[in-house]
């Protein structure tokens, strides 16, 4: 049977899995950012949130960057950074609730979660400008649709929207790699540099970097198969085929996790891919497929998947070399041919998505007509004491339809109206950012849809995606090493960050699913100049003041002696490379040039520059009882390393769900 080959879930079970999984991702994200708020966003932090909202009008809070943060700060008479921490704490609380308590997996709670995260992102500035933050917001809005008003056949449409998001993200990520004309992608040599040049590699990245060249090139070619060929299959009405397409993507995510610290992104995308394992509205509908239908689906799935694999092998010149027992790969199409294929592929993707949405709507109508309900095939888990959710609670289709006001004019109809109204809005407006990969497709977007997208842009409903557009590090991994001293001429002591490479003898860190955002931004800063990264000078300013919150984000602080406090800072740019096999060190490095000259504390030019870039809070804030309580709570959190704190809160939420 199909379920014997690939586990397929009914819609109600999938819905629970998606909602709990989304809550786990929220818990990771809120916990991670909560730990870092004092260093990044406090009134003396690197990018003070106070500087972004202190000019807001109390009579017009909606025009503030983050109305919720401003209102909390103004009404409770607390510091803006305290308000931001309260927002993060509320996010942690509601995330744990929706993980552990079934009754809270409702539209209202998921609306609160997405609004809380949106409130943080809106004032997050540079440290929250990541595609996974955008993805969490977009999926968050989708989960309000998934969680809406209980179960009904309309869930078939909401789970389709989740598959559509996963397909858009991965398809666009594959296309933009080749559109960038980056020679490493076109030469299938990207993995020659990726493992050592990515933001935060893991120890296994060193192992992967030293694999044979032919294997690395084959892995790049397989990346294009997973990212370009498989995502459109997420949208086809054949459960077996969707599963065959999703499983390689999920495996791909775990492979990335093994070699790189990409916070919650890989877990999140793997969760979205799980929507492809939906086999039918009910378990009985999955089991009820006749042998003939199952056989046809199996044959069609293998045929489509096989045809895609054959075409990929031709386009990427896949050949087995028996003499060396290797697999050769080489792109066989030209850039002009790729442009034509992109235009055709994007058009096909859009049409498949629209047809798929229509088919899912028709399936919803048919399911309502048959009065098929999830409870009939998927009863609530038995409780230890019986009662609701216990023995004898399995309901018939007729019972569930009657109790829920089933039918198109009852609760099912109200649910369907919400899913159709808001879900359709999200579906159609998402084509605006998605079609940026092809001008012809973008020009065909109706003006009314484009206008809706523009008018609602502040809510972050939909986004464009394109991961790893260009590969960096061909000449070595650029890395900034900040050095401090008590005297202008040294001696200089290196300041090591929590997880980014520094000491060549230190193993790469494993911090996922936590994201040390300061470490990440240091990677981006190394690709440019400090003059183009105002936050970097703010960091230097905080280091010169030995700010305790910022020091708490570091791996070491070599200026603990009061006799020789830090008074000067400079930055050097090195190129790091993974060491050769057999070496005791993990890295080798070579000095390239001075990244930033010597800076002294409270240099007027620096302070003026920071003020111009809203990186210094101009107002003074009193520390009230709520501020003190939150500070004390954060002091307790800092007893744990930042990644351990995130692991602990996540584990607590998951374990709590086992006992409630």
UniProtKB/TrEMBL annotation:
Lipase maturation factor 1/2 C-terminal domain: residues covered: 463-597
Region named Disordered: 375-402
GO terms for biological process, alphabetical: protein maturation
KW Hydrolase (keyword) present: no
Keyword list, A-Z: Endoplasmic reticulum, Glycoprotein, Membrane, Transmembrane, Transmembrane helix
Bilayer topology annotation: Multi-pass membrane protein
Chief location bin: endoplasmic reticulum
Transmembrane segments: 17-37, 82-101, 108-132, 218-238, 250-277, 298-320, 348-369, 416-434
One family name in Pfam for this protein: LMF1
Signal peptide range: none
Domain Lipase maturation factor 1/2 N-terminal: 129-278
GO cellular component: endoplasmic reticulum membrane
Compartments (UniProt record): Endoplasmic reticulum membrane
Stated role: Involved in the maturation of specific proteins in the endoplasmic reticulum.
Annotated family: Belongs to the lipase maturation factor family.
Record protein name field: Lipase maturation factor
Record organism: Pristionchus entomophagus
